[in-house]
Amino acid sequence: MHKIIKKMAAAACLATLVAGITTSPAVQAADSTSTMKSALEEGKAIADNRKLGNCLACHMVAGATLPGTIGPPLVGMKARYPDKAKLRAQIWDATKANAESPMPPFGRNHILTEEQIDKVVDYIWTL
Q: By residue range, what is the domain housing residue 56?
């Protein structure tokens, strides 16, 4: 009976140790970094997709193939939009800031979902 209890205690200790390793700050930081990178990659994919964000139809983005020249180049975005919420508002509906804007209201017209807009904003803000 003592051997069974000792084995169960050893198994419980091992489980606690493994749980501690997988939730250590270093592991959490690595998970957070890979999640952020993944979200930025998703945002880029949406922005570049000719059937979704289609940002390249109008904007120049460094390294992009066949970028447009109708809209301003997407560079220095953190300096241009220190308040990330204003960038999001611009993407959600540019006509609020400029009624004559040729930019489609991606949120108001449901061209992109709220989640897609958030990912595009996160990506564009890094440019």
A: 2-124
